[in-house]
């Protein structure tokens, strides 16, 4: 798919920020639709197909968290890049927990923004992974159907969650560095400074660990990265 065929929906109510984002996306050849509210975005998402949703959190009426949650409840796997002036860790975790694929805090570098956009679009175009059901602890994960059964109940997995889990499962017991995760899953340079990995691991532990504060399966290896361990014995 060429850039000039890719449609992106931007939901941003600050005119100056929206104008800058639209200008830079269109300069890259993307087709951009713009909404200033979540309600208007819902109408656009129902009426048209998009390759990416760029979503501000602080919106009039329904906020970006709620719009993302509603989108995921429909079963949509549309990639979502959240933009917000709220940089607190709890907000980032909330955004990822509601189904966002990536998170960028204002003010941000337009170069980094375009890199994130390209990485999300590249991943969304890849063929869906087909892997048998994988069980560990009290969890069962079907990467083909993108569903998981956990102590929390049944979960729908996003495309990026599938990608991360497939990487961990394929390297069971081995340490995966932050740089390897960034490059393999997010398509970003290994030395990119970002909290994306840390927030995502928190999200996985919330899903799959009986005690997220004392992880058994998704372990931190200090100074090296992360390791997946199948057994809790």
Fourth-level CATH superfamily of the largest domain: Response regulator
**CATH architectural designation of the largest domain:** 3-Layer(aba) Sandwich
Radius of gyration, Cα only, in angstroms? 18 Å
Biggest β-sheet description: 5 strands, parallel
Explain this structure to me?
This protein is of the alpha/beta class. The chain has 2 domains: 3-125, 3-Layer(aba) Sandwich (Rossmann fold), CATH 3.40.50; 134-228, Winged helix-like DNA-binding domain superfamily/Winged helix DNA-binding domain (Arc Repressor Mutant, subunit A, Orthogonal Bundle), CATH 1.10.10.10. The protein is 39% helix and 21% strand. The protein contains 8 helices and 12 strands. The protein has helices at 15-27, 38-47, 64-73, 89-97, 110-125, 159-170, 178-186, 196-208, and strands spanning 7-11, 31-35, 52-56, 80-84, 102-105, 134-136, 139-142, 147-150, 153-156, 175-176, 218-221, 225-228. The strands form 3 sheets. A 5-stranded parallel β-sheet has the order 2-1-3-4-5, with helices on both faces. Strands 6-7-8-9 form a 4-stranded antiparallel β-sheet, with no helix packed on it. A 3-stranded antiparallel β-sheet has the order 10-12-11. Helix 1 (15-27) links the parallel strand 1 (7-11) and strand 2 (31-35). It is globular and about 50 Å long. The model is unreliable at 126-131 (pLDDT under 50).
């Amino acid at each position: 798919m060429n850039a000039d065929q890719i449609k992106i929906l931007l939901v941003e109510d600050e005119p100056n920020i929206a104008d800058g984002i639209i200008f830079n996306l269109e300069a890259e050849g993307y087709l951009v639709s713009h909404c200033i509210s979540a309600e208007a975005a819902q109408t656009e998402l129902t009426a048209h197909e998009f390759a990416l949703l760029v979503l501000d959190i602080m919106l009039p009426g329904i906020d970006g968290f709620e719009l993302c949650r509603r989108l995921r409840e429909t079963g949509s796997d549309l990639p979502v890049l959240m933009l917000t002036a709220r940089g607190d860790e709890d907000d980032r975790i909330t955004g990822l927990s509601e189904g966002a694929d990536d998170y960028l805090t204002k003010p941000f570098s337009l170069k980094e923004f375009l890199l994130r956009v390209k990485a999300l679009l590249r991943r969304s175009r890849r063929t869906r992974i087909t892997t048998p059901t994988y069980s560990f602890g009290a969890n069962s994960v079907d990467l083909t159907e993108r569903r998981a059964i956990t102590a929390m109940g049944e979960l729908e997995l996003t495309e990026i969650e599938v990608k991360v889990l497939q990487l961990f499962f394929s390297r069971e017991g081995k340490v995966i560095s932050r740089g390897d995760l960034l490059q393999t899953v997010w398509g970003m340079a290994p030395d990119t400074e970002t909290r994306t990995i840390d927030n995502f691991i928190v999200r996985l532990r919330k899903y799959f660990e009986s005690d997220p504060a004392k992880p058994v399966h998704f372990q931190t290896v200090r100074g090296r990265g992360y390791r997946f361990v199948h057994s809790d014995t």
